[in-house]
Design brief:
Length: 211
């Protein structure tokens, strides 16, 4: 396992993937399990990952992604979609999960449930989607980092038509809405961007210490 700094130095915004090299089932499972463990507000996880390997669907998604080759060339495409309905039912399902996993009676969690519902209630529908989107991006960050540690390239992408993605993947019927996607696989040996020196501001520029 790479040191985290070494891993993040190694990763880059992969521009070209090796089409013939695929993630093993174990590698994919490791990435997904790590991402599921990503932090989210109240632990609600108001997002889902759609893992797409079907070549025909990937071709359609590439068209909806303005022709970007890595959508179809990477080993796997991961679509992060958020719940369209952030409501009491979503909170109740989460509280039921807490009850089941921790062995706490539902009635003992009523105050916790009420607190979460009270925090969400004043938000408009758009504010709730924006809030959920932030949680999805936290998960995306975990996916990218887990990939780097495992020597797997993960390229985050926003250049696509989300409504077309929703239509192609049938997400509307599932109450979901595409927000961001990630191509996962292995960099091609002839990807010139892999040779670029990483450009980041030094710590003195990026960190403000309050002592």
């Amino acid at each position: 396992m790479k040191n985290i700094i070494e891993a993040m130095q190694w990763r880059y915004a992969t521009n070209k993937f090796e089409v013939s090299k695929k993630l093993s089932d174990e590698q994919l499972e490791s990435l997904l399990e790590a991402t599921i463990l990503a932090p989210s507000s109240y632990g609600l996880q108001p997002w889902k990952m759609i893992v797409v390997t079907n070549p025909e669907i990937r071709t359609k998604l590439q068209e909806a992604g303005y022709g970007q080759p890595k959508i179809s060339e990477a080993s796997h495409l991961v679509v992060f979609a958020v719940e369209k309905h952030i409501d009491d039912a979503l909170v109740d399902a989460f509280i039921k999960s807490v009850s089941d996993v921790r062995g706490i009676p539902l009635e003992n969690l009523a105050g916790y449930a009420g607190m979460i519902k009270g925090a969400i209630a004043p938000k408009s529908e758009e504010e709730r989607k924006d809030w959920a989107t932030k949680q999805a991006y936290l998960a995306l960050g975990v996916l990218i980092t887990a990939g780097a540690i495992e020597g797997i390239d993960v390229a985050a992408m926003e250049g696509f038509d989300p409504k077309k993605f929703d239509e192609i993947l049938g997400l509307e019927e599932q109450g979901l809405e595409t927000k961001v996607i990630a191509a996962a696989g292995f960099r091609a040996s002839d990807d010139p961007t892999a040779q670029y020196k990483k450009v980041r501001y030094p710590k003195e520029h990026m960190v403000i210490e309050v002592k």
